Amino acid sequence: PDAQKRAQIALIKAKPGDVIEFAEGQFDFTRALSLDVENVTIRGRGMDKTIWNFENQETGSGGEGLLVTKGGFTIENLAVEDTRGDAIKVEDVKGVTFRKVRVEWAGEPDSTNGAYGLYPVKCDDVLIEACIAIGASDAGIYVGQCKNVIVRNNVAQKNVAGIEIENTVGADVYNNVAEDNTGG
After folding, report:
1. Sign of CA dihedral 57, 80, 146, 15
2. What confidence score (pLDDT) does residue 42 get?
C-alpha cells in the first residue's frame, strides 16, 4: 500500500517534462495507476530489475496496471506483471514510446489473464521497441485505431495474438519475434 500511494502521488504531481524513476525491486500494487500529464517519462532500472506486480490487484480498482491519457509519454526499462486487465493502456494521445518494457502474466496462458499487454489505442506517433509481452488472453502487443506507428525488435510469446495491428494507418512492423501464440 505504501508503494502504491507513493507511485500514484508521483504520477498525480508530475509536471510536463518530468522523469519519474523507479529503483530496482518489486513494487506490489493493489490498484490501477493512472497518468494524466503531458510529456512524462516513467523509467525503471531494467525489465528484470524494476517490477510492478499487480498479482493482488483488487477487483473494481480499474482493470489496467497503468492507464495513460496524455501524450508525449515514454515508459522504459521496467516490467508490469499479473494485472487483472490490460497491463499498460495508452488512449487518445499523440506521442507514445514503449522501450524495453516487459508485460507478463505468470504461469500457463489463461483466459483470466488481462486482455492486452502493450495497448496504445487511438494514438498518433507510436513507438514500441525492444519490449516483451507474455501471456495476454488476447494480444500481447495491440495497436488499434492509431496513426504513424513503429513496432520493432519485440518478442511476443504465449498470447492469443502475438502482435495485432488493427485499423491503423502507417504502421511499420519489423524484426519482431512471435512464438507460441495462438496466432503470430
Report:
1. positive
2. 98
DSSP letter for 55, please: T
Strand runs labelled E in the chain: 19-21, 25-28, 33-35, 41-43, 50-53, 66-68, 73-81, 88-91, 94-104, 116-121, 124-129, 132-134, 139-144, 147-152, 155-157, 161-166, 169-174, 177-179
Give the number of residues written for the chain.
184
pLDDT in tens, 106-117: 988 889 899 999
What's the pLDDT tens digit per position in 34-86?
999 999 999 999 999 999 999 999 876 667 999 999 999 999 999 999 999 99
What element of type H or E holds 92?
A: none
pTM over 0.90: yes
